[in-house]
Every structure is written in structure tokens, then in C-alpha cells.
Write a structure and sequence with these properties.
The chain is of the alpha/beta class. The protein folds into two domains: 156 residues, UDP-N-acetylmuramoyl-L-alanine:D-glutamate ligase; 167 residues, Rossmann fold, CATH 3.40.50. The protein is 48% helix and 15% strand. The protein contains 13 helices and twelve strands. The strands form two sheets. Strands 3-2-1-4-5-6-7 form a seven-stranded parallel sheet, sandwiched between helices. Strands 10-9-8-11-12 form a five-stranded parallel sheet, with helices on both faces. Strand 9, helix 8 and strand 10 form a beta-alpha-beta unit. The longest helix has 30 residues. The radius of gyration is 20 Å and the shape is globular.
Length: 359
């Protein structure tokens, strides 16, 4: 068996790197003699770090060769079939699906969030994905969007594979990063660039100050997207009256360990919230993208967003949301813990659908 994975891989984005790490680990466990090929922006690093074959994602000839020898082509996970980033991005990912289908390969949309898609985006997905072998999506909103576009394919709602993450046997030492016991009670903030960036800075600075000055929290910013996220975090820190930290952690295990010991997570980044769900850590979401709202809806999260980009910043509403999250931490953690078995089963279902296809 030879698998080919297409996704936003090799860009040093911690969320997508985590997704790839979990998918590869699951495939190696389930198919120990399979070959796994990944389309990557940094193929040498991807091959070295994960013990896989890797193909340069910009080399069209190499991509066609990789598809020609693949048994199964997986598009995902992640938010690939959308044209909010650009139509060019959608054409890239949908084009790989179309090339694989034309080559007669078993082709699956795997653990994706779908959309946003405008008229031309929907037309592209409808034409390029005609004949898909299988499809799983990680929220109900995505299922409702994709199913009418590929009517001959069953589209199943699952959950993000990162929900299957298991910590290493040896605990990660967070003390060198300043996140040891002295950082309690710890709040982690994972920000990123969005539309209406200046309003986001104001909203997050207000939330951070409320947590630090009113509730005694120790707040740390954790960049998921490298320098770009660190730049956003720095702008928010400069706006704060309190003194939050900016920390750097290397790899999924360290980041997951930090989130697991936090009392609260404020997340713009989707996978910060997914890891919070995984460890039943209360969170406040900022839905810059429909996939974030999709996650909160699917886990039936009782708190509204901290702030939605594009809306007017209402300071009293921000402070009330922070207070509700902080004082309701115990009940929120219990709610997420009750969700855990279902979310684990849904995340596992991606690989069960793949197994049916692979047979």
C-alpha cells in the first residue's frame, strides 16, 4: 500500500505539523508495511522528521509521478478546499484531487474543513472533486457545504485527528520555557493575523489585562505560526497594562504539555482549541474562520466567542466573557471531559473510512 498525502505541510505551522504527525503515526500503526509520501514545502525536513517519503509540493512533474505510483491519495487534513485564502490555493489542492481521480486512484477528502467557498469556489470543488472515492470532514458545517457539491460521494462528519494525540511516557519539562509551577495559574493565548487586526489587538489586550489584574492569572502567548504569530503577540503585549510573556516551545509534545496544564486557553488558532478540547481545558474562542465556529458548535461549547473579527469591540462584553470563563472553569472542564469519548471516536472514524477505502 502506498499513500500520498496532500496538505499545508512543510510551512512550520504547528497546527498543520501536528496534524501531519498524528496522521503519519496512525498510518504507520495501521499499515506497518505501507509507504507514506507527503507533498511538502520542505521535503527533506519532512522526510527526516517523520520517517516518510516526501515530494516537493511545487514540482508539478514530481507530483504527477507521486500520484502515478500511489494506491490512495488523501487530500487533507486541514482547511484546504476554500478560497478565502485565494482561488489559486483552492485550484492547487483541488487540482491534485482532479489529477488523482483522472489517474484512476482511490482519492479521499480526509478530515478537512470545507470553505468558505464563493460561487466560483463551489463550482471548482463540484467539477474537480467529481468521482471522489470517500470524504470525511471535521465539522457538521463542512458536511452540509460539501455534500451537495459531490452528490455521488458519501460525506461523513468526523473530527480532527489531533484529538487522537497521546502524550509521551516521559513528561515534558516546561520549566526552561518559564512555564513551570511558578507560572500558575497559567493562561495561554494563541493568536494569529486576522481581518480587523487592530480590533483583535484591543480585544485580546483587554482580556489579558482582566485575567492578570483581576483574577491573578499568569498569561503567556504561544505562537503556533512562527514569526508571524509572534509579531501579533508582541503587538498585543505592547497594548497590555499587565506583563504577559511570549514563550517559544519546540514541537507538539511541548505545546500539548503546556496546554494541558493551563487553566484557560484563548485561541484564534484552531489547533490550540483542539488541544484544549483534547485535554478538557476551558477556552475562549475567536472565530476568525468558520472552522473555529464549527469546532465550538460540534462540542456544544456553552460559552460564546470572546470576540468575532468584524464585529465592534464592546469592552464590557469582553470583560464579562473573561469573567464567565474564569469563574466557570470547573463546569466547562467537566463539559469537555464528557465530550471526550465522542470526539475520540469521531477522530478515529477518519481512519476507519480510509480502511474501507484501502480494502
Amino acid at each position: 500500500m502506498r499513500f500520498l498525502l496532500s496538505g499545508y505541510y512543510g510551512f512550520d505551522n504547528l497546527g498543520d505539523d501536528a496534524l501531519l504527525q498524528i496522521i503519519v503515526a496512525q498510518l504507520k500503526t495501521r499499515y506497518p508495511f505501507a509507504t507514506i509520501d507527503v507533498l511538502s514545502a520542505k521535503p527533506d525536513a519532512t522526510a527526516h522528521d517523520l520517517g516518510v517519503t516526501a515530494t516537493p509540493r511545487w514540482d508539478q512533474g514530481a507530483i504527477k509521478d507521486a500520484i502515478s505510483v500511489a494506491d490512495v491519495v488523501l487530500s487533507g487534513g486541514g482547511g484546504l478546499l476554500q478560497n478565502a485564502t485565494s482561488l489559486k490555493s483552492l485550484l492547487y489542492y483541488a487540482g491534485i484531487v482532479r489529477t488523482a481521480l483522472r489517474a484512476g486512484k482511490r482519492t479521499m477528502v480526509f478530515a478537512q474543513s470545507i470553505g468558505p467557498l464563493d460561487f466560483w469556489g463551489k463550482q471548482t470543488v463540484r467539477e474537480f472533486c467529481k468521482g471522489l472515492s470517500a470524504a470525511t470532514v471535521r465539522d457538521e458545517r463542512s458536511r452540509e457545504l460539501l455534500a451537495p457539491l459531490v452528490p455521488s460521494t458519501a460525506v461523513e462528519r468526523t473530527a480532527d485527528p489531533v484529538l487522537l494525540y497521546e502524550p509521551p511516557e516521559r513528561a515534558v519539562d516546561l520549566e526552561p520555557a518559564g512555564l513551570g509551577d511558578a507560572s500558575d495559574p497559567l493562561v495561554l493565548v494563541c493568536a494569529r493575523k486576522t481581518a480587523h487586526q487592530s480590533d483583535l489587538v484591543v480585544a485580546l489586550a483587554s482580556a489579558v489585562d482582566r485575567l492578570a489584574l483581576e483574577h491573578g492569572a499568569r498569561v503567556a502567548f504561544l505562537p503556533f505560526g512562527g514569526a508571524a504569530d509572534a509579531e501579533v503577540a508582541t503587538a498585543i503585549i505592547r497594548k497590555c497594562k499587565s506583563a504577559p510573556m511570549l514563550v517559544s516551545l519546540d514541537g507538539l509534545d511541548a505545546v500539548a504539555a503546556a496546554i494541558a496544564r493551563a487553566k484557560l486557553v484563548i485561541g484564534v488558532r484552531l489547533h490550540a482549541l483542539i488541544l484544549a478540547v483534547r485535554f478538557a481545558v476551558p477556552f475562549l474562542a475567536i472565530p476568525y474562520d468558520p472552522k473555529v465556529a464549527g469546532l465550538t458548535g460540534d462540542v456544544d461549547y456553552p460559552l460564546p466567542p470572546l470576540y468575532t473579527p468584524g464585529e465592534r469591540v464592546v469592552p464590557a462584553r469582553i470583560l464579562a466573557a473573561v469573567d464567565a470563563a474564569w469563574t466557570g472553569r470547573a463546569a466547562l472542564a467537566e463539559h469537555l471531559a464528557r465530550q471526550a469519548p465522542l470526539q475520540h471516536a469521531l477522530a478515529t472514524r477518519n481512519f476507519e473510512v480510509l480502511a474501507e477505502l484501502a480494502r
